[in-house]
Structure formats: structure tokens, C-alpha cells
Specification:
With about 375 residues, this protein is of the alpha/beta class. It has helices spanning about 20-30, 45-50, 60-65, 100-110, 130-150, 175-190, 205-210, 235-250, 270-275, 320-340, 355-360, 370-379, and strands at about 1-5, 30-35, 55-60, 70, 90-95, 115, 160, 165, 170-175, 190-195, 210-215, 255, 280-285, 300-305, 310, 340, 345, 360-365, 365. Strands 3-2-1-4-5-6-18-19 form an 8-stranded mixed beta sheet, with helices on both faces. Strands 11-10-9-12-13-15-14 form a 7-stranded mixed beta sheet, sandwiched between helices. Strands 7-8 form a two-stranded antiparallel sheet. The longest helix is centred in the middle third of the chain and has 20 residues, at about 130-150. The radius of gyration is 22 Å and the shape is globular.
């Protein structure tokens, strides 16, 4: 089976879809692997390193896309490259299928078997393939570091000859993978950390990391079968905002991570809440790319409101590209290994497998994802 791994198409992407050690594992499985020249430049990895791992190095991207049985990427493909793919080829990458309707339709029309890495089910068996969680983990870590850099206070308590410096107050909204890592990182840096999530089940996890869980009675809340927070009603959202306003006003740093899978991120922090914070305080909106949790946040920009900086940086995992690439590469290898037929030396699309049922969104000219179908019908 012939696998091609092109360079990432987005000019600001620093991560690499497959590291040389990952290529070596694919070769061991019996695959033939070609990578585009310069694929590892952003991580300081040379073409020689890939060649030593057994990969063919090519500069003819279009030709390789047309020959490959399977294409592996990190970011979604440019729509104009879909027609270059061999018919019935398997394409694996993030696809943003809920928003990229035109791209998904193109994959259907071209009869591409498209696997969306963000659609990997959140099950115990699929955990090692869960790229969404692995990248969110790093995103939570980076969010704290950039907030600490831009805040006008230090995070830990310090005993100095000039007196005692109080620890910074950090408030994390949303305690999924990113939020929990943000809590752990802020605690390591010595901050006083509070956190909130609509799912009461995460309270114990928050406390185990040394943070205080902010309790807000919202009535019936919870999580989906995949572990994501359920969308709140308008009344619940109003209660949440009212109760959080006091915590936000006292915080030096606020980090929002709340997202509803497949939908626009909920608006949680209002302009009035931002204005209630001390000048020099910082808010990091980790949901800015899906609509934003913070009123006024803007993708890729720092917006200042009454002296409070709202950071809308995108692709936070891309700020630590070596480890982000290592994790994504491992996720891909684990996915491929799970569905690899050793005798045929090929990746198999086992349509009866629950993992494949979740992440294979197009196949043989059809849209297969039931979740995607239901959201399209609702529109």
C-alpha cells in the first residue's frame, strides 16, 4: 500500500503530520511511504532524517497525491487538491466537517474515503488515536504560559525583602482535557486556581489537581456519551454568567475552554465581565476559532477592553510544534496499526468497527457520518 504525506498547506502551520520514527513504523508494517520534501522544516527535521527512516522524498506533490492509496495530513486539504486524489483513495486529516460543507461535498463527489481525526470517538479503546484530546492537552498548557507572559503580575506567592507578593488568581472555565491541563500548569506555576464546568462529575478531578471548583446550581446539566458538555439553555447560561461574574472580577487571568462539539462555542464572558477585571488582567479565549467564549475576542488578535487584554491566539499546540507533532504522529500510527491487515499489508476500512463508524465521514460517494447528517438536516 502506497502512503503519501504532504507538507502542511496552511502557511502558519508549524506542526508536522508524521515524524521520521512514525515513518519507520509504517515501513515496518509493510507500507511504501513517500513524503514531500521539506515536510519537517518547521520542526527542524531534515529530509535526510525521513530518508533514513525509509521514506521516499519527492517534490512532485500533485503526482504523489494522484498515486497514493492513502494520504496522511494534519490540517484539512485545500479543496482544489481533492480532485487530484486517486478515486477511492483514503484521506486522513482534520477536516472541520461541521463548517467545511463545500470540502466535505467535494470528498463525497470524488468518492474519497475521508477520515476526520476530530471525529475519533472518545472511548477507552480509541484513546490512543484521539488527536483532538492530545492537541487540546498541549493547548491548555500553552494557554497558561502566554497568559503568564502577558499578565502584569507574577503567578506564585513570593516572600521578598520588600514584602509578600500574593499569588495570582487564575479562573479556568471548562474542565475538559484543555481545562484540566491549564489547571495543572497554573498550579505548578504557583497560582491560586479556581475552575468551573457545567458537568458536576469533573469536580473531583479539579480538586485532585489542587484547584477550587466553583459550584453553580444550573439544574439538570451533564455530558454527552462522548464526554462533551451538553449545551445549556438560555436560562442556565444566564445563571452561569451571573454566578461567574464575581469570580471573574477578582481574577488576574481567565482562561476559557468551553466548546460544544459540532456547534458554535457558547458565549460565556460578556463585555461587562471583562470591564470588571483589573487593568492589566488577561483573558485567553481558547474557543476563539469556533465562535469564541468571550465577547469581543477575535481570532489571531489581542483585543484590549478597558485595559484588559483578550488573547484570541489560534493554533496554540502549534507553539510547541515538536511535541504536538510527536503526539499527532503517534495518534496516526495508532489508528493505522489498529486497522492494518498484516497479511494484505494494507489499511482496511472495517465499516462495522465503532471507531471507524465514528470517524469515516465519506465513503464510496456517500456521506456516512450520522452526526453530520443530523446537523445538516437541522439547518
Amino acid at each position: 500500500m502506497f502512503l503519501f504525506i504532504p507538507k502542511e498547506a496552511h502557511p502558519d502551520e508549524t506542526r508536522v503530520p508524521m515524524l521520521p520514527e512514525g515513518v519507520a513504523k509504517l515501513i515496518q508494517l509493510g507500507a511504501e511511504v513517500s513524503v514531500e520534501s521539506g515536510i519537517g522544516t518547521t520542526c527542524g527535521i531534515t529530509d535526510d532524517a525521513y530518508e533514513k527512516s525509509g521514506a521516499q522524498i519527492t517534490s512532485n506533490r500533485s503526482e504523489q497525491l494522484g498515486k497514493a492509496d492513502m494520504v496522511l495530513r494534519l490540517g484539512k486539504p485545500p479543496i482544489e487538491e481533492v480532485d487530484l486524489l486517486k478515486e477511492d483513495a483514503i484521506h486522513v486529516s482534520y477536516l472541520d466537517p461541521f463548517n467545511e460543507t463545500e470540502l466535505v461535498d467535494a470528498l463525497v463527489a470524488h468518492k474519497t474515503s475521508a477520515i476526520a481525526m476530530e471525529m475519533i470517538p472518545r472511548t477507552t479503546l480509541a484513546q490512543k488515536m484521539d488527536a483532538l484530546s492530545s492537541q487540546a492537552n498541549l493547548g491548555g498548557y500553552v494557554a497558561v504560559l502566554i497568559a503568564a507572559e502577558q499578565a502584569n503580575v507574577v503567578l506564585p506567592m513570593m516572600m521578598t525583602p520588600a514584602g509578600t507578593l500574593k499569588p495570582a488568581r487564575v479562573f479556568i472555565i471548562g474542565c475538559g482535557v484543555a481545562g484540566l491541563q491549564a489547571i495543572a500548569t497554573a498550579k505548578r506555576l504557583g497560582a491560586r486556581v479556581e475552575a468551573f464546568d457545567t458537568r458536576p462529575v469533573v469536580e473531583e478531578q479539579v480538586q485532585s489537581l489542587g484547584a477550587k471548583f466553583v459550584k453553580i446550581d444550573l439544574g439538570d446539566t451533564g455530558q454527552t456519551k462522548d464526554g462533551y458538555a451538553k449545551e445549556l439553555t438560555d436560562d442556565q447560561r444566564a445563571k452561569q454568567q451571573e454566578a461567574m461574574a464575581n469570580v471573574i472580577a477578582q481574577s488576574d487571568i481567565v482562561i476559557t475552554t468551553a466548546q460544544v462539539f459540532g456547534r458554535k462555542a457558547p458565549r460565556i464572558v460578556t463585555t461587562d465581565m471583562v470591564k470588571s477585571m483589573k487593568p492589566g488582567s488577561v483573558i485567553v479565549d481558547m474557543a476563539v476559532e469556533t465562535g469564541g467564549n468571550v465577547e469581543g475576542s477575535s481570532p489571531g488578535e489581542v483585543v484590549t477592553v478597558d485595559g484588559v487584554n483578550i488573547l484570541g491566539y489560534t493554533n496554540l499546540p502549534g507553539r510547541v510544534p515538536v511535541h504536538a507533532s510527536q503526539m499527532y504522529s503517534a495518534n496516526l500510527i495508532n489508528l493505522i496499526t489498529h486497522f492494518w491487515d498484516k497479511e494484505a499489508k494494507a489499511f482496511t476500512l472495517n465499516l462495522d468497527d465503532e471507531i471507524m463508524a465514528g470517524c469515516l465521514i465519506t465513503h464510496k460517494g456517500e456521506l456516512r457520518s450520522e452526526m453530520l447528517k443530523s446537523i445538516r438536516e437541522a439547518k
